């Protein structure tokens, strides 16, 4: 003999793998399925007939009440994604704790239940999307790491030339629009080829890494410090006039020259030449600024190296 349709419906509601509960307009619970019981620890007898907030005072009362009321007024479905609101109920999840989420991540659907074209109740479904959220977060973190690696110089860990020029372009565009001050420094290590020839490329790589770490330790957080290629480095100084930038140049030069690099029991003396240039009316593009700083850098080399020169 076939089971009554109502009995089958009740069985489905009890057995489905997501939460189902029904609310009236006063936020009283009219139905509470097995999923909700298992995850809340509260049976239908404890919940039905009472305000939802009686047992769950931590729920976002204002937001949830407005959501339910909108379904009553409009008679249309509403939805809430875990990306907007990670969870409605603080239910435990069965995913590894390494997933980085404290509670079950939930998608919520709000469905109007109608009789004679009038909304008489709202059915809310709770879907466990914890696995989806963890996978998506891991994917986003992986993409962010790949992007970070794409922006970094593989040897020194500072910004690479592509990223530096992108930041310079953005900052130059901002300067063109709003004015102010902006400077660029280019510097490279003096006679670096001799270091490679005398001590080997392994020592040369170590010198580059140590120099990058030293300089990174003295620049501001808002500055962009990058490797321009080989032994040449660049520093973008937003909101900085050329006079102040040349003080930074001297600080960098001294930071590099004052202490030799100790590598494999060998003390390697290192100095640097620095060239600086500043944005000003008449400089048509950011790459002209680089060319001017480069000209100042080579002027420093012609004057004997281990010095700072501003473009004029």
From TrEMBL:
<dbReference type="GO" id="GO:0005886">
    <property type="term" value="C:plasma membrane"/>
</dbReference>
<dbReference type="GO" id="GO:1902201">
    <property type="term" value="P:negative regulation of bacterial-type flagellum-dependent cell motility"/>
</dbReference>
<dbReference type="GO" id="GO:0006355">
    <property type="term" value="P:regulation of DNA-templated transcription"/>
</dbReference>
<protein>
    <recommendedName>
        <fullName>diguanylate cyclase</fullName>
        <ecNumber>2.7.7.65</ecNumber>
    </recommendedName>
</protein>
<dbReference type="InterPro" id="IPR000160">
    <property type="entry name" value="GGDEF_dom"/>
</dbReference>
<dbReference type="InterPro" id="IPR029787">
    <property type="entry name" value="Nucleotide_cyclase"/>
</dbReference>
<dbReference type="InterPro" id="IPR043128">
    <property type="entry name" value="Rev_trsase/Diguanyl_cyclase"/>
</dbReference>
<dbReference type="InterPro" id="IPR050469">
    <property type="entry name" value="Diguanylate_Cyclase"/>
</dbReference>
<dbReference type="InterPro" id="IPR000014">
    <property type="entry name" value="PAS"/>
</dbReference>
<dbReference type="GO" id="GO:0052621">
    <property type="term" value="F:diguanylate cyclase activity"/>
</dbReference>
<dbReference type="InterPro" id="IPR013767">
    <property type="entry name" value="PAS_fold"/>
</dbReference>
<dbReference type="Pfam" id="PF00989">
    <property type="entry name" value="PAS"/>
</dbReference>
<dbReference type="GO" id="GO:0043709">
    <property type="term" value="P:cell adhesion involved in single-species biofilm formation"/>
</dbReference>
<feature type="domain" description="GGDEF">
    <location>
        <begin position="180"/>
        <end position="312"/>
    </location>
</feature>
<dbReference type="InterPro" id="IPR035965">
    <property type="entry name" value="PAS-like_dom_sf"/>
</dbReference>
<dbReference type="Pfam" id="PF00990">
    <property type="entry name" value="GGDEF"/>
</dbReference>
<feature type="domain" description="PAS">
    <location>
        <begin position="12"/>
        <end position="56"/>
    </location>
</feature>
